[in-house]
Amino acid sequence: MAQQHLEPTDPLAGPVTGDALAGYLRSQATEFLRALRQHREGGAPAQAQEGPVDAARALRRSVRRISASLHTFRPLLDADWSESLRPELAWLSGTLGMEHAYESRLERLLLALHRLSGAVFPTQPTAVMTNGAAHPAPAPDRGNLTVGAAKAGALLDRQLTLARTRAHSTALQALGSSRFHAVADHIAVLASEVPLTRTAPATDLRPLATAAQERLEDAVTALPLVTAGHPYNAEALIHGLSPDPSPHPQDAPWHQVRLLLRLHRYAREALTGANPPVDGRIHTAGLCLDRHRDASEASAAAASAARTPRIAPATAYALGVLHADQRHEVEAARFSFQQCWQKQAVTT
Amino acid sequence: MAQQHLEPTDPLAGPVTGDALAGYLRSQATEFLRALRQHREGGAPAQAQEGPVDAARALRRSVRRISASLHTFRPLLDADWSESLRPELAWLSGTLGMEHAYESRLERLLLALHRLSGAVFPTQPTAVMTNGAAHPAPAPDRGNLTVGAAKAGALLDRQLTLARTRAHSTALQALGSSRFHAVADHIAVLASEVPLTRTAPATDLRPLATAAQERLEDAVTALPLVTAGHPYNAEALIHGLSPDPSPHPQDAPWHQVRLLLRLHRYAREALTGANPPVDGRIHTAGLCLDRHRDASEASAAAASAARTPRIAPATAYALGVLHADQRHEVEAARFSFQQCWQKQAVTT
Prior knowledge:
By secondary structure, chain A is mainly α. Chain A has helices at residues 18-41, 50-72, 79-116, 147-176, 178-190, 206-221, 225-228, 252-272, 280-306, 313-347. The interface between A and B is large, with 41 and 41 residues.
């Protein structure tokens, strides 16, 4: 049954060899270098324009794809080179992604606070309730919030803006470090010369891509999809007040599927070229899992903020409501994923 | 479309006259007198046995049915008698119901706290965490709760047990009052002599029962069932942090439907006799609306407890999670009702 969930790599009737992989890696490396140049031309960090943000996103985008290809098509690539580069790419991708993660987490939580207050969000979400730490903002509109919700918003804003500012500095430091320059040098070489194994140019990529797809399908099969398909199963909040302060262990398999889905998607790209035919179902499933991840992390941020010493009870109450709200978002995302995946199984 | 939702009063091909109503009212009055005798024989309030609890429930049961019949079949009954008795029955039903309401609300909230802590409830729910105010309880098992959840449970237990104890006293006082004796006298007369209007014995009851059914169907049609049918619509919590401390106004139409469903059910009983054929769909819909009402009131109790002065932030946080959890129960109950009602519309 799991085999039928995804269409096979169908645009590819005949074999696709290591040469296609080399082409894919070269193009991703070129993207990386272009984004890096754009980032450097974007100006000093103080004048944070759109340019550098997009450039940082493009950098991450190509790094993720190179890293995924090194993983999925490992047997076709020089082992030493591949083994040494992958952890560096993971470090880079992680470091560059943090700032954006904190920013969107704050945005999600403030939007939820306003939704839970029955208020319409007045203007640009990220600009509201900012206490001026990172960027000037219009006067906060807290007229429709309870004291607790307003204080919870201010606390989250303070904590996540601080984290974002730190992540920004860390990313800038990383981009100026010798460690980064070594990675960039590697990728510059990759843009012209891909270290394939001797037999790779004549080897078919498709079995390795299929293996990536099967890892995804196996992981999906292991998910509690029957439960997820029952609306309001109340599973996501089941440890909402657990004494264990660690993130919900029940979320981990879903996060894992999200990563495997990405590996599958990038493997398809490598086979079909940089602009593969859009697989709407895979796209939707990915969005569900992104939402799952975002809500999971937002709920953890609300719970963590509630452990701040000396907060008012009204603040803690609002954070409790917010935490539970985001856990239900987690559950809703699982339901959507189940619906989307079920549809795949039926239509194929 | 609304007309098709419920089967018409189908066991009744021919007319059912006021004599059937008189028979129904006599039997309910007899039930009332039997329950009252059982309650008086049940012993002093201190030795709260099962007997008096069941007796109080049976009293409420018959009072609700008499009251509903007075409402639905008003044109067939002596107007002065009916108008004077109905508010007294409402007072009695309300007074007798409060103790049980507080008890089951506490039980629901403590069960939810344990569920949210990932703990299995150790023994009898109502007996756990009681501070001994009303009845002796086994040692509370708070081992699996966070400090916040345990404190929230203790706070709710204190507040709702106090409310329950007061409701118990109020009910006992009511049952000893001259106001109650006047009601009981009225019902004793009703057991043998129903004050029908002159034309009632030959009047068909069915149009009045159908009118009750139509009031129900109209109220259901006005519910936001399309939204309720979309799982995880996040509507129930939309005012979860609203500055307005009053109960959620969005719940009122659902509570109203619950009452109209009951009136419809009792009208059917009057037509078909005390043991009508069970209408599974009406039964299920009623359970959904009971769950909606219970979760709505439990969420309000959690929110109200969070406004207790000088509570710890951890307690307030747990109450916030609990409030949101019960609001999602509200949303889940609406979804279940929609599913059940939809099924009716399809199968008829």
